[in-house]
Amino acid sequence: MAHEKEPSSSSQNSPERHGLLYILFSFFGFLFGHSFSRSRSQQHAGSIGDNYEGEGQNRQPSPEIKIRAELYTPESIERQKAANDNRNYRVQRLLTIGTWLTFLAAAIYAGISLKIWLEMQEQTRIQRNLFINSERAWVGQSGPIWLEFFTGNDKRLASRTHITLENFGRSPALGVVAMANVVEHDDLAHSAEMTCKFARAEAGFKVPGMFVGKSDIQHSGQTIFPQQKWQVEVIDSPINLRATVLYAIGCVIYRDDVTDGIWWTRFCQETNPFRLASTYKAGEPLGTCNVYNETGKYDRDK
User: pTM here?
Assistant: First the structure.
């Protein structure tokens, strides 16, 4: 019986061995096939690359082909475009000319308006001055001036100048102050300037270069009503009777209630130029000089 069991053992192990061998052969076959396919694919890729490189080396550059395309516009469209351009140019030119003409017309109108305005201002100023001159006070010399000589306290020859002032205007003259000097010809210009300065200072107004007290023009000077006269006597010394001609030069300062300015009147009269001043007789009227007979106005702040 032991002899019968051996064959059965070998017969049972035989299928398992065959299965294992089959698996091993299949695995090695798979590996061999996979390796063979990879080598074949690499060789095929290399051959393709070599063929491509060979073809690239043997390939010649293709000739350059130039194509010239021209767009043709019909003549009718060209004429229409040119006509439109010309029309637009004419319109723009007309607009430019119209703009400049409008500007020129505006400038001319502005110039005419300015001229009219300036003329109106001038007419207003003239009318205002006419009103002021017709309504304000006018103080001036009324009748001739005459001189009187005498010996002063200092034993020197002095003069007394007799002046008659009158208000020829329509408003009262306020704060009237008169100053006068009797001088020779060489001192005439300087005295003409200084008499008005001294008169302004006497009236209380500020005079450049002169010390003046507080202004009180409402209560200083003389008031002369319209058509009223005022007799003034001004003493001056010393007097040189050896001079050929003596001049009585003076200035009157006043204001009124019509204007805000300070009015002045300068006057000048002289002894007979055809004889010496020493032959002058007291009370003899003097003659009018050909200079320094004028009138004007000072501003309050000057």
Answer: 0.58
